Amino acid sequence: MSRRDQIRMTDDETRAFLVAGKDLQVASINADGTPHLVTMWYELDGDEICFWTYGKSQKVVNLRRDPRLSVLVATGEVYEQLRGVSIIGHAEIVETLPEVTAFGLHLFGKYWGPAEDELVRAGVEAQATKRVVIRVKADKTVTWDHSKLGGTY
């Protein structure tokens, strides 16, 4: 069995890793061809990674021009702890206010708990008017979990 096969996560492991994850590295392509790399909070919608951002942000400008992107969720301090999911794909931009608002409330729940307070909910709803949701449509997914090697190299 190849080293690559030894460290690959199963579908269930990948999903559990992404559900537990917090930070998503997002790379889009600037007009001059250079990468634009940012960190975003994200949530899964079904099996797809989604995040929200301001509709006029550089990443959205880039994705409107060229929808290709790469995203990465990774953890680990030392080699034998390295785990990650890297996705190459394209962005679907969701702009309808009800969908953006619903996603914003869902995302708020992941990071801070349910938006039960009326003022908090109103704040998320106000933000939604200036935001879009980016849905990552995966073309290729690569996973790794070096803990499966049992400390050997």
Describe the protein's architecture and organization.
- With 153 residues, this protein is of the alpha+beta class.
- Helices cover 33% and strands 39% of the residues.
- The chain is built from 5 helices and 7 strands; from the N terminus they run ααββββαββααβ.
- A 7-stranded antiparallel β-sheet has the order 2-1-5-6-7-4-3.
- It starts with a helix and ends in an 8-residue tail after the last strand.
Task: Sum up the structure in keywords.
39% strand, 5 helices, 153 residues, alpha+beta, seven-stranded antiparallel beta sheet
Reconstruct the topology from this structure:
Layout: H1 3-7, H2 11-20, E1 23-29, E2 35-41, E3 43-45, E4 48-54, H3 58-65, E5 68-75, E6 83-94, H4 97-112, H5 118-128, E7 131-145
Antiparallel strand pairs: 1-2, 1-5, 3-4, 4-7, 5-6, 6-7
Q: Low-confidence parts, pLDDT < 50 over ≥5 residues?
A: none
The ordered string of helix (H) and strand (E) elements is HHEEEEHEEHHE
CATH superfamily of one domain: Electron Transport, Fmn-binding Protein, Chain A
Total strand count, please?
7
The value of Rg in angstroms is 17 Å
The percent range for helix content is 25-40%
Q: What would you call the structural class?
A: alpha+beta
Largest sheet: 7 strands, antiparallel
The CATH C-level class name of one domain: Mainly Beta
Strand percentage, roughly? 35-45%
| Mean pLDDT, all residues | 94
Secondary structure tally, helices: 5
Q: What would the principal axes of the Cα set say about the shape?
A: globular
Termini Cα gap: 14 Å
Per CATH, the architecture of one domain is Roll
CATH topology grouping of one domain: Pnp Oxidase, Chain A
